[in-house]
Known about the structure:
This protein is α/β, with parallel strands linked by helices. Helix content is 30%, strand content 22%. It has helices at 49-57, 77-83, 101-111, 116-129, 134-137, 147-159, 177-194, 205-211, 229-234, 239-246, and strands spanning 7-18, 21-33, 38-42, 64-69, 84-87, 165-169, 197-201, 214-219, 222-228, 297-299, 302-307. 39% of the residues are buried.
Amino acid sequence: MQTIPILSVSGLTKHFRVRGGTVQAVDDVTFELAQGEVLGVVGESGCGKSTTARLIMGLISRDRGRVAVDGDDAMEVGRLRRQVQMVFQDSYSSLNPRMSAIDSIAFAPWMHGMPRRDALDRARGLLEEVGLAPGQFAGRYPHELSGGQRQRVNIARALAGSPRVVLLDEAVSALDKSVEAQILNLLARLRRDRNLTYVFISHDLNVIEYISDRVVVMYLGRVVEQGPVADIYERPQHPYTQALLASKLSADPRRRLERAPIAGDPPNPLNPPSGCRFRTRCAFAEEVCAKKLPALATAGSNAAHSVACLMVQPGSGHSRAPA
């Protein structure tokens, strides 16, 4: 019996009309999450990671595609947000400066009909759960909290409605490394205790490797590779993924890069290249790469690992493709 994914995203697309053309921010993004799984989403700035999260939450409208929770893609936004919540990178601007920590956490349950006293009790419990003593932190305002403390409040606020899926958009990127480690350990504990499912967006490849079960790699609005974290990190198939991982920082001073893993800047999203969007920066690009847009396809015999590259697709016309 096949289980229904807790979160299913299919064909998600968003193009923004701007002066001078249309930005293809997210183009045909598709993935699924099982209950309790962590999906890491990586890629350069501007690849569409954050826009994808906002599309899932309904913070911006999608041009096409579907987002389903437990197979239901017709739920209205209010019901969706009781199942799916989000934690943003900027812990300060995410909080109302005029609301104390406890009021910020209690606000959503109260607005959804919970008596205020019960909502405040829940908020106190959540403060305790994220490592902030209610007696010390409940009455503090955002400017009276450190970055790590504010992010703990944001996490507690996201959990106030008992969601099953939490989207974390660069949620630890603005923190010091020691605080980052504490927040990652907190997220791991909350995941275990509450059986939460995460979509974890980050540009930090080490963080993604630490926390994720599966990884989605995005480039210029499209998914170019996805699969189990061990497969992606140990056996990357797409040239972009290989270059991305080659740029990963190492604690070993003997491991130095002699040259940049990727040459040049990403193409203008107003006018993306034809065919494979990575071909203008790819060392293996051939004429066929400009003519065909590679679809995600299974990489070899591993059905869980898929790649959008003509080099791994039999009969694609690329000289390196399998026969």
